[in-house]
Design brief:
With about 550 residues, the protein is of the alpha+beta class. It has 19 helices and 20 strands. A hairpin with a 2-residue loop joins strand 6 (about 175-180) and strand 7.
Length: about 550
């Protein structure tokens, strides 16, 4: 790996003359205001030599003699590469002239949208020094824990990266107190702790918590800041509903505590106000619950027409309230494998239930569903809940997402609308439609919690997500078409079902190009969030796509547009 001074010397040599001189822009390589090699080396010394060059995953693979498909698609492999994102399309810059792209087989790799320098932080002081350095030289910043980020907010062109993967502390509390108030059993964990590690640590203590269903997520980062849904949410609420405290380095470089007792305005904002906008999260503390046994029921069906798939969507919608008494969360999805073949799957988690009871509860729905299908498979497993959540997710896929929260009222009153929406989406080319029955139950009952979570979550029954995937060899023009298919075609169809103007989405699994993101992701909370942003980050040091304050900046977050 090249030395820091050598890297910065090269950057200055090749980028002088193309820099932006406007005072409304961040400093970039080639600017007179950008730190020179000596200044960068001095900063590196101040943080114990933990400044690292950052390169795209494709370049890393080329430097080590190539990466196998298994490595390219492995979140754990990508996690140790500072510039790597789980979805490699976010590492690219498809819109620059010429495009700056780097995949495994790319000739003349560009830096794309990958930061140029990164702080491989091992302590809070590293983060604090980095924030002060970024302020001093007016640098673009990015924050990354694992790179599990469907909106590309953990990477940014010409930026300084705060990489928190080394913050792996875990502490369980039998009695966690804030302001003299006992908040009960909880766990504090750093912003480098993956969910698979945390689930197993909790298992050893007979505990469980609200977390995502994929292993590579770092819960203290974007997950909680976006609200954080879970297959356990109908029983225990959203992840952010269970957050008790955050340790965060804010834009002035200070480490502060955000809780109901300290900086309650920031505590309000961090719980649902969007990832990457508030500072560098050092740790989070969340509630824990007694662990329990759980049955996971998986069903898979093959359907041979879009009409049959739409009929199944309607049938499923007519039964989703069947399991409310047990507060069951479940996932369901349609994958279009050919013009006339659709694979449908459903996975549900049943606390403290027998397999016989689960089969009996699902029979009224599945007995009808199988009549629409050509192939059917069902399997069940019974284990402690910690081993039933946190599946292995796949990385290395280029993907664009869009989503909408669908209210319980729509499912109760407009089954034909549900069917028509799925049929229109299939006919419009949608190939992956993922439904997450992770609302209702305790999520609705937690409407009294004062946080920045979009209020649409409290009346929702499901989050429906649209996903388009493409190959690494797609041209920039083709990538634009794929993305616009989500933004301009598929999401508007789903939006009509969700209620149109004023409908809500989940900011962690949505479209970064949402034209009205302030309303779609944050609803009536946006004005308050914007005011809090000005208190804790008055110079917009932490700006991400579709994040609070991003409307003041261009698409790359490098120059103001106001």
């Amino acid at each position: 790996m090249p030395s820091i001074s050598a890297l910065t010397t090269v950057l200055h040599a090749i980028l002088v003359g193309i820099a932006l001189s406007s005072p409304n822009c961040r400093s970039q390589p080639g600017d007179a205001s950008f730190p020179n090699p000596d200044q960068i080396q001095q900063f590196n010394s101040s943080i114990g030599g933990r400044l690292v060059p950052v390169i795209p995953t494709g370049k890393f693979c080329q430097n080590v003699g190539g990466c196998t498909d298994d490595q390219w698609n492995d979140p754990a492999f990508r996690e140790v590469i500072p510039g790597s994102m789980l979805q490699p399309n976010w590492e690219q810059n498809f819109v620059s002239n010429p495009p700056s792209i780097c995949y495994r087989n790319t000739t003349n790799c560009g830096q794309g949208s990958v930061p140029i320098l990164g702080i491989n932080a091992t302590c809070v002081a590293d983060i604090q020094e980095g924030v002060r350095f970024a302020h001093k030289y007016n640098l673009r910043t990015a924050i990354k824990a694992s790179g599990h980020d469907y909106l590309g907010r953990s990477t940014a062109k010409n930026s300084l990266l705060f990489w928190t993967h080394n913050f792996k502390n875990i502490t369980f509390h039998d009695s966690f107190k804030i302001g003299g108030k006992d908040l009960g059993s909880s766990v504090t964990f750093g912003s480098g702790v993956h969910l698979d590690t945390l689930y197993q640590a909790a298992k050893a203590r007979g505990k469980i918590f609200v977390g995502a269903n994929v292993r590579s997520v770092v819960a203290s980062g974007g997950y909680l800041q976006g609200g954080g849904h879970s297959i356990l949410s109908p029983r225990f609420g959203l992840g952010s509903d269970n957050a008790l405290e955050f340790q965060v380095v804010i834009a002035n470089g200070n480490l502060i505590t955000a809780s109901e007792a300290e900086h309650p305005d920031l505590f309000w904002a961090i719980r649902g106000g969007g990832a990457g906008s508030w500072g560098v999260i050092i740790s989070a503390t969340i509630r824990t619950y007694p662990a329990f046994s759980a049955v996971v029921h998986n069903a898979a069906l093959t359907l041979n027409s879009s009409d049959a798939a739409a009929d199944l969507a309607r049938l499923h919608a007519s039964h989703i309230f069947d399991w409310d008494n047990e507060k069951i969360g479940h996932y369901f999805s349609f994958v279009k494998t050919s013009p006339s073949v659709f694979l449908w799957g459903m996975s549900s988690l049943w606390p403290n239930a027998s397999e016989a009871a689960v089969n009996a509860s699902l029979a009224p729905f599945l007995d009808k569903a199988v009549l629409l299908a050509t192939n059917v498979s069902v399997d069940l497993s019974n284990n402690v809940v910690n081993d039933q959540v946190g599946i292995l997710d796949q990385a290395g896929l280029n993907a664009a997402l869009g989503s909408r929260l669908i209210s319980a009222q729509i499912y109760r009153s407009d089954l034909s609308g549900v069917r028509d929406t799925y049929k229109q989406l299939f006919d419009a080319g949608a190939s992956n439609i993922i439904g997450l029955m992770v609302a209702g139950g305790q999520v609705s009952e937690n409407a009294h919690i004062d946080s920045a979570v979009h209020p649409k979550w409290r009346t929702a029954k499901a989050l429906v997500t649209l996903e388009t995937i493409w190959n690494d060899d797609a041209t920039p023009a083709e990538v634009k078409t794929f993305q616009q298919g989500i933004t301009n075609v598929q999401v508007p169809i789903l939006d009509k079902l969700a209620g149109g103007l004023g409908s809500g989405s989940y900011s962690n699994e949505g479209d970064v190009f949402e034209p009205n993101f302030q309303v779609t992701f944050y609803g009536p909370n946006y004005a308050r969030l914007s005011a809090i942003k000005k208190v804790y980050d008055p110079d917009d040091l932490f700006i991400v796509g579709a994040g609070v304050g991003s409307e003041r900046w261009g698409s790359q977050g490098l120059c103001r547009v106001e």
